[in-house]
Each structure stands twice: as C-alpha cells, then as structure tokens.
Amino acid sequence: VEKRECAYCLAINTTICAGFCMTRDSNGKKLLLKSALSQNVCTYKEMLYQTALIPGCPHHTIP
After folding, report:
1. Radius of gyration, CA atoms only, the chain
2. pLDDT computed for residue 56 by the predictor
3. How confident is the model at residue 7 (pLDDT cuts 50, 70, 90)?
4. DSSP letters along 10-49, please?
5. What are the Cα distances from residue 57, in Å, to 36, 44, 63?
6. Is the dihedral of CA 2, 47, 13, 17 positive or negative?
C-alpha cells in the first residue's frame, strides 16, 4: 500500500486463496484433455476485514 502523502510504503500479506482447491468441470467437454478441465478455485469458510494504519500518513489521507 503506497500513497504520496505518506512517509512509508507498507507491505500487507494476505492468505487469500491459500491452498487452492482443485475442481474439474467435465460437462459437455468430451474432446478436451482432463488436464484442460481442471482449475484451481478459492472457496471461503470465513472472511475477515481488517484496517491497516500506515505510519506517517496525514489524517486526511485515505490509503
């Protein structure tokens, strides 16, 4: 997260989509290889929003 008005650039690490779940869609795609039907998807058991304050930002700045 970076803003010109702030004194710092802040890296925020998330665990979104950690451990992708493999899924396969074979509906009507008989000519494709099985590997072409597989894809990684995200499913969520819970979600959490948190606010991060960037040090050195003026109070009027919205990072």
Report:
1. 20
2. 80
3. confident
4. ------TT-SPEEEE--TT-TTS-HHHHEEEE---S----
5. 47, 33, 8
6. negative
